[in-house]
């Protein structure tokens, strides 16, 4: 990377022997290191990708991006994921993909089934999740989040909580082969 390079390394060989030029190049290395550090702090998107933003920065950017669903009380990790996908979410708003992405970020896992996939009424859809945290306490937050990215002509019919458990199932079979020989004397 450029920030790991000294100006001395960029000098042509015929100038590297001049003590004054070498001293000037070395003296500028400290100034450039400070400049590169400031550039890294300014570069919000790089820090966002690395997860190095503050709550205040996340809240400000969420307001600027007009995120469909955002709550200041969310954990910083969730805020970062919402900001990382802000442009895609805003572009796909009103589609089942937008709902699924939001459900996955906020509640872990889930998918959307449209009315024709489960035999419902036209215009309705359901969300199926296996996140046990989607309980009565969080139901309003869950529904508000989903509605924030749903098109106006679609209606949430229900949220189904599916539960997957590990089940040890043992199956055994037996087979007996042989010949039946009858001897008469």
Write the layout of secondary structure elements.
Layout: H1 7-10, H2 19-42, H3 44-50, H4 55-65, H5 76-84, H6 86-92, H7 96-107, E1 111-114, H8 115-118, E2 124-129, H9 136-147, E3 155-161
List keywords for this structure.
three-stranded mixed beta sheet, mainly alpha, 185 residues, flat
Give an overview in words.
With 185 residues, this protein is mainly alpha-helical. Helices cover 49% and strands 9% of the residues. The protein is built from nine helices and three strands, in the order H-H-H-H-H-H-H-E-H-E-H-E. Helix 9 links the parallel strand 2 (124-129) and strand 3. The longest helix has 24 residues, at 19-42. The protein is flat. The N and C termini lie far apart (98 Å).
Summarize the structure.
With 185 residues, this protein is mainly alpha-helical. The chain has helices at residues 7-10, 19-42, 44-50, 55-65, 76-84, 86-92, 96-107, 115-118, 136-147, and strands at residues 111-114, 124-129, 155-161.
Which consecutive residue ranges, at least 5 long each, have pLDDT under 50?
none
Any idea what the shape is? flat
Tell me about the largest β-sheet. Answer: 3 strands, mixed
- The number of helical runs is 9
Which class best fits the helix and strand makeup? Answer: mainly alpha
Q: What share of the residues does DSSP label as strand, in percent?
A: 5-15%
Radius of gyration: 31 Å
Spell the H/E element sequence. HHHHHHHEHEHE
- Helix-residue proportion: 40-55%
* Chain-averaged pLDDT: 85
Widest sheet, order of strands: 1-2-3
Report the count of strand segments: 3
CA(first)-CA(last) distance: 98 Å
